[in-house]
Amino acid sequence: MLFPWAFRLGWINWWILSILVLFISSILWSEVLITKTVDNVLASKINVYAENDTNKESIEQIQGHMLPIEELLDLGFKEKYSENFEQAAEYFSHALAQNPIPDLAFSLMIDCYYLWDNMGKHDYALTQLESHIHRYLPLFKAELRFQFDTWMVKEDLQIFLE
Fold it and tell me: How far, CA to CA in Å, does 159 sit from each of 113, 154, 156?
């Protein structure tokens, strides 16, 4: 919106400089958030590399309470990028259990499904996500419902909902 104004006044250089400052600031801010998250994880008593069969139980036992959804998402993505897919799926599943908004729930369901399916746990993925799908399907707005239906057809899961 400011570009035409800056163009008319001959302040293009200042406009470009301000865009660069905003861009660099956003990059640095994301680094601050990542560092803060890493510090929180290191300070916590959570055993991120617990045995695969007891991940969900051990996380809840060690914590004694549920982590905030934002922290679960951060931990989930950290594990996903570290290729610790089992743990990432568990974190995303915990986040999904906290009843997030429909848009976030949609993304979490897809992430959980792909992570479990790629580990050869297709049936497990479907049983774990069934209740979430039935809970959120009526809450999806038209565009999100279309995306969800398209994804279900692509993955050949439409029979699953019948």
Answer: 16, 12, 7
> Does residue 17 or residue 77 have the better pLDDT?
77
Residue 79's CB: how many other CB atoms inside 10 A? 21
H-state helical runs in the chain: 2-9, 12-43, 55-63, 69-81, 85-97, 102-118, 122-136, 142-154
Q: Which two tokens stand for residue 110?
A: 């897809």
CB 95 within 8 A of CB 108: yes
Model pLDDT for residues 135-145, shown as the tens digit of each residue:
888 888 989 88
For residues 86 and 119, the answer to whether their CB atoms sit within 8 Å is yes
Give the integer Cα–Cα distance in Å for 75 and 38.
Answer: 9
Residue for token digits 């019948």? 162
